[in-house]
Amino acid sequence: MSEIVLGLGASHSPLLTFGVDLWIEKAEDDMRRPLNLSDGRYVTYADLLEKVGPVYAEAATRDNLLVQEQRCQAALDKMADALEDAAPDALIVIGDDQAELFSLANMPAVSIFYGDEIIMHPWSEHAESMPNWKASAAAGYGMDRARRFAGAPDLAVAAIEGLIAREVDIGASNEVVDPNVAGFGHAYGFIATRLFRGREIPILPVLLNTYFRPNVPSAARAYDIGVKLAETLLDSDDLRLGIIASGGLSHFVTDADLDLGVLHAMRDKNEAHLRSVPREALLSGSSEILNWIMAAGALRDLPMSWMEYIPIYRTPAGSGVGMAFAIWR
Asked: So where are the chain's domains?
């Protein structure tokens, strides 16, 4: 029987791959994109600024963002320390696929990859044509070239078969044919690049469709699959396992109330709250909260021992991302 020895949760925003000056450059994107609110509406930045006013102007200063950037990197270092200390035989990474491996030609609601290698999908634009922030993020995400990380094929097959036996119709994939066309994305590459510290840790990727309707699982379904995932992992061979949620929390308008409600529910084992997070709060980047909810189901028997929440308001109107980091031990 295996043991789940560690749980982790980490935002994977591109802000985590570069310094504060590029945070400010990245904020300019918010002026051009539709921004999702937690009630399901999309607004322009001009609409948001008119609605709330420049209430986050002081939070969006370079000095404050520099402090927050340092806090984020310290939190990631703490998580890397915990991973090194726990030394799991494999790490289950629950992430979302943003049309990097899958496409609308075939977008499973939930899938497990059981191939020998996790091969990254490099961003296709030539580095010279990328914005500065994106070129830096490509390296931090392991997507500057077709990088390769070890898979966990035997454990993945056991997880697939165990979930099928538990009446979860899980998708399955075992090959990256041409990584320049389709391969693994930043939800997986960031974890390996930032937290592994050069060590080889076999990865079992769980790919959750959080972005692409109509087959996005509900919060309740994500939580329940997480519970069953843990059950089948514990039935596998005698292994020390870690589970990590990659992504989130709220973006691209930071919603601290939403984020802290989810984090506190995880800490307090409030399953009812986690299972009832409304679909309209889980759009665009905020949909990655589902990765955390699935991980919370898998980690419900492990206490959350540490949590760090850093709400990033990178513009005066409050667009940004809720950065979250957590350890279950």
From this structure: 3-328
User: Whole-model pTM?
Assistant: 0.97
Q: For 224-271, write each residue's pLDDT tens digit.
A: 999 999 999 999 889 999 999 999 999 999 999 999 999 999 999 999
**3-328 in CATH: which number?**
3.40.830.10
The answer, yes or no, to whether residue 76 has pLDDT greater than 80, is: yes
> Please, which residues bridge with residue 118 across strands?
149
